[in-house]
Amino acid sequence: MPTHARPTDDPLQRERAHLAESRAALRTMRADTEALDLTDVTGNWVNAEVLRREINERIAALADLADAPLFFGRLDYHEPPGGERPGPEAGPLPGPPGERFYIGRRHVHDKDGDPMVIDWRAPVSQPFYRATPREPMGVRLRRRFGYTGGELTAYEDEHLTAAGLAGADVPASALLQAEIEKPRVGPMRDIVATIQPEQDEIVRADIGGTVCVQGAPGTGKTAVGLHRVAYLLYAHRERLARTGTLVVGPNRSFLRYIEQVLPALGEVDVAQATVEELVAHVPLRGSDSAAVARLKGDARMAEVLRRAVRSGVRMPSEGLVVVRGSRRWRVPAPEVEEIVRELLDRDIRYGAAREALPQRLAHAVLVRMERSGEAPDDRVQDAVARNPAVKALVKQVWPVVDPPRLVLRLLSDGDFLAECAEGILDGDEQRLLLWDRPARGVRTAPWSAADAVLVDEVTDLVRRTPSLGHVVLDEAQDLSPMQYRAVGRRCTTGSATVLGDIAQGTTPWATGSWAEALTHLGKADAVVEELTRGFRVPGKVIDYASRLLPSIAPDLTPATSVRDSPGSLSVRLVDPAELTAAVLAACRAALANEGSIGLIAADARVAALTAALDAAGMACLSPGDEASRACRLTLVPASLAKGLEYDFVVLEEPSAVVEGEADARTGLRRLYVALTRAVSGLSVVHSRPLPAVLAEGPVPSV
Ligand SMILES: Nc1ncnc2c1ncn2[C@@H]1O[C@H](COP(=O)(O)OP(=O)(O)OP(=O)(O)O)[C@@H](O)[C@H]1O
């Protein structure tokens, strides 16, 4: 890339000049795109519309966002990338530098087409995230830029091949540290400038395989998953544009919290959904006890449903008789039965087999026609397949399956359930599955979330669910085996990124091991990676929360904190009569700091706390709402805290959070989630004894 002569020796001034030139180049690129004349290139209206839309998207992508720096890093290669890479033993190389690349969110080129900013996802950008003095990847200098309000104000250099550095570890970066320590406000931000090497390996992992990330709270799982989608869309744009990508999250609040990350990375064509939304075949009007939901989510249900779907297939009592003109063609019952059995044995969907049956029967008729000297062609076979006698037989032996109706029958009709569950579920389990009262119709049945997953399974048994190119499944530890199957069938021909933390599993059916979960997902050969460097929770707070780990997930490695600040942690015991007032006071104290405040409490306490905040004139938001300067306090029911983070957290009555769950382990896991949402500080206010495992060891004081 040609270096432009600049009238200053001050490196910061030179970098600012490059920023100004890059911005100007981006403006030109945008203006050129806006000025494109489509009149001659498109033959028809539809093409013109498609092209116009694409161009509008490109114009939007070329916007110079005020709060997102155009570039955040620079790489000076020893030589053009791709040339021989100097090993660590080579030491600093003499002579003129190789190529220089500025790394940013999107590609910008000058009027000659020379790159001024390189997309962070391009191969030449990779050393920005991965190079070390031990393995410099051909890079001489890595420069990180610091911005204040859109202004380039600082830079930080690493001379990766400087004498004495070979083989050394990467020195800590002050700019990275500053980025991590920044107070949080509003929705999740991208981390494109500071992706860490262990994260980058996951982000850029090959699209062919599924990656599963077990990561302690705040290790960047969600961030990594979203950047991985952006990376894959860059590296495989055409393929994924055809097949689609999907991010699955635990609830709408969470999806709202993360929804701006991908657009900030220039990607808007990614669907986001909860598992419930994916399987929304029936209106939800009921709920299940934990035991029932666990059973409905059990993988054994898949076989029960498979049997239920096929249970309607009847062997014919009589053969097929087709009348054509003056002739009658007869296919005897045993032959029809053989055709039906052969279709049952084939590994095809119920619906596809049903569609194939008329042609199979017609073929049997055609064979007879040929034997008697006729020469029927394909059209005759099609006509026979449409013959009323064939249609009637198909209807009789291979009835249409309506998935909601079939599941309704299974949950309402004990005899039918017994027939389908024989040898799979015992009598007690079968009784547990049945609704209290048989349902009358699909629209009024007391469908629960777990029932909807069963309907989805049946839907797929009847007709194959279309598969996407890539699915990111966040908070994956909470899915039941049947839910894994539901997500898995949406990426049978694609791959998945599975993100989760066993210690944060808070559903009664939460998975006990990734190997098991991945098997249900249909991706048993996935690679499991573990992240333990935490970017959110300060050291003091994560150590406190980790006291719960031996009780909730003894095999996991406790997270460390990469934050410099140890954070503030206070645990205050107050009189029960003063609990609410003390919680409000803690919120007020937290509001004196910068950033967002999350008040987390047991779900059952939310109504009372809403009223108390209201009476005290303290405005508050719901999870996923965007914080503003005027309102930075969010009241978070413990059940919705997962995946979210706040600069400062006030946690009310840990015992109540634990008791809000069906069993003690789930309760402690819910508490673990609540304790690990804070970025700068955590203030625990309680009036009852703390759960014993948390109280062990010195209790941090105010
Ligand atoms: N490399 C990084 N540079 C800067 N910030 C980072 C980096 N990685 C993660 N973070 C920040 O750390 C915080 C936690 O990240 P994230 O929510 O992705 O973690 P998580 O592993 O999904 O956590 P949880 O299990 O609690 O949901 C976020 O604010 C994220 O932006």
From TrEMBL:
InterPro entries in alphabetical order: DNA_helicase_UvrD/REP (IPR000212), P-loop_NTPase (IPR027417), UvrD-like_ATP-bd (IPR014016)
Gene Ontology biological-process annotations: recombinational repair
Gene Ontology molecular functions: 3'-5' DNA helicase activity; ATP binding; DNA binding; hydrolase activity
Keywords associated with the record: ATP-binding, Helicase, Hydrolase, Nucleotide-binding
Domain of life: Bacteria
SUPFAM superfamilies the record matches: P-loop containing nucleoside triphosphate hydrolases (SSF52540)
Membrane-crossing segments per the record: none
Positions contributing to ATP binding: G215, A216, P217, G218, T219, G220, K221, T222
Any single Gene Ontology cellular-component annotation: cytosol
UniProt keyword annotation of Zinc-finger present: no
Domain UvrD-like helicase ATP-binding: 194-538
Name of the molecule in the record: AAA family ATPase
Organism this protein belongs to: Wenjunlia vitaminophila
